[in-house]
Amino acid sequence: MAKSIERRAMSKVLNFHCPKPFALRSKPKAYIMDEELDISSLVERYEQMQLFGKKIYFDADEFAMLADYYNSLGDNKEAEDIINEGLIMHPASPELMILKAKTLVFSELYDEALSYLNNIPDEGDIELPLLRIESLLHLNKTDEANEIINETMSKELSIDDLYVFITEIGYVMNDIDNFDRAISYLEESLKIDDSNPDVLIDLAYANEMKGDFERAIEYNNQLLDIDPYSFEGWINIGKLYSMNEEFNKAIDAFDFALTINENDVSALKMKALSLYLNDNAPEAIRIFEECIRISPDDESLYDSLLEGYEAMEQYDQMAHIINIKEERFGTKGITTRRAFLELLKDNFPEAHDLYNKIPEDEKESLDYYMLEGELTFIGGDLRAAEAAYIKAALLSENNEEIIDRLANVSVAQEKYEQAAGYLKQLLDIAPDYPTAKSRLAFIRFEIGTKEPFDEIMKQFSDDELRALLHVISGNENADFSSFDRQKMLIRLNEARENRVLFKNIKY
User: Fold this and answer.
1) What pLDDT does 499 receive?
2) Of 247, 236, 245, which Cα lies nearest the Cα of 208?
3) Are 187 and 203 a contacting pair, CB within 8 Å?
4) pLDDT tens-digit profile of 440-467?
5) pTM assigned to the model
6) SS3 category, 194
7) In this structure, how many other beta carbons lie within 10 angstroms of the beta carbon of residue 207?
């Protein structure tokens, strides 16, 4: 199983940050129901009127409350119909007009929303600037949005309005992937109220997207302090631990989640992925098999199971799962799968024969180009292999395995500068990618340029430098145990200058 693929899967299987537009997050003041008002009786009256075809008449605030009720149920269409009906009867109602603007923002009709907002009287409520800011940011009109933010912040806002304003701006910044500004606003929000779970979720999300898993874990732990029985909280912190390569902690977190929601397939799947990344393929396979028993129509489970069997070189089991996939989900991609399996078994003629049988409508897929690259590389057609991997890279940006193969095929063609570029890109994405650092060092050694060679040497530990000296010297019995770091670097630079025995280095 390619672990880089599993790490990407880990980041995609579950993502509990589901940002909603301000349109659905916030409630206008008309939504804040007085204690004496009973929403259930209002809903009952509304539904009876609908049932008997009677003309519907309510006050503006009652229409607003009804819209909020149906929004809370996820019935946005009903809520929108209520808002439109309310505006027919109360066309000048600011509450209903704001709700109408929110439906436009929710529908991502930002230009239309901005135009409509100009018709709403500004009574000093922060909802109007928030809706304008959200629309402008989504239209990439950042300067105009910033002007409104600064103008609003300069006013003497109540502490409640200030809290709502900076919190909502933080959410919107997350929505547009401006994670630094999201963190800035949300951290200020946290200073006012440190118990809002939505703020903690968004802070964890923003830090995760920035790659700061430690900080994301910290915020997720605060969320669990508030609600120790949050299923989503345990799942998300398990994902974060796994992405931070703290696999034992990840597995424990998923176990906690499973005590809350036993047999949840998503939690089981995440636990299995963590087990695999923790080099426990047998247990991962057992859990994937359990997931299939619970959810036999989830095709991704069969793919994960195939990866697990591949890691354990259980090729007969792989063939069995491929057959099951074909029976349950059809023939699409099956021939490519079987060709890859024959490659794993070093049965190149059969793999090539299957490759030639792949249907035309499956020949522009990532798997097809990867298979083409492998077969042409093995067959010695390096230019064709490079072309195939480049096509694959266009379909899967920053795919570690593809970049790794492009580096290898570049070395095989003696395009060392190009190979160095690919390996540097690979290390930027995955600093611990197996052998990438050593291979980049070997290439820098062959190229013979001092500065880039010294740069990659800084990334090596002392033990890694000794191992590199052994390889470059070509003398397995050489003893470098007494060498300090400086002496090893001097010896390596001497070897680089003399261009010693690059042919001894295996890729």
Assistant:
1) 54
2) 236
3) yes
4) 877 876 775 656 666 767 777 777 777 7
5) 0.67
6) coil
7) 22
